[in-house]
Each structure stands twice: as C-alpha cells, then as structure tokens.
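Handout, section B. The chain below has 64 residues.
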Amino acid sequence: MKVKYDKEVDVLRLVFSDNKIVESDEEKPGLILDYDIAGDVVSIEILDASKKMNNPAQVEYQAA
C-alpha cells in the first residue's frame, strides 16, 4: 500500500494496487473510490484532506 499526499491540491490518496483504474465513484462528498476492471478498490482519494484531519502529511502505521 502507498500513501500519497499532494499538498498543492490538498488530496490524500491511499493506493492499494497498481491495477488500471476503470471507474471512479464519489461515495460521499470528498471521498472518491477508484475501481479496477474486476470491481476491486484500487485507491481511495480524500479531497480537502487538511480540512478533514489534523496533519495529512503525517502517517502512522500499526500492524496488529
């Protein structure tokens, strides 16, 4: 998984695979899910990320 934050456009993107995106849906305002040909989620985009979280450039990872 990759986490990308573009400060210039204030978008946080969680990328789960390198599969080609064939469809995107805005499930809720500012939350976009990208799907591959099989219907699996490829990535999630959070628009206006700095307004929805304290520090979108900071990532903490925990394995359970």
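Note. The CA atoms of residues 39 and 53 lie 28 Å apart. Compare this with the example in section A.
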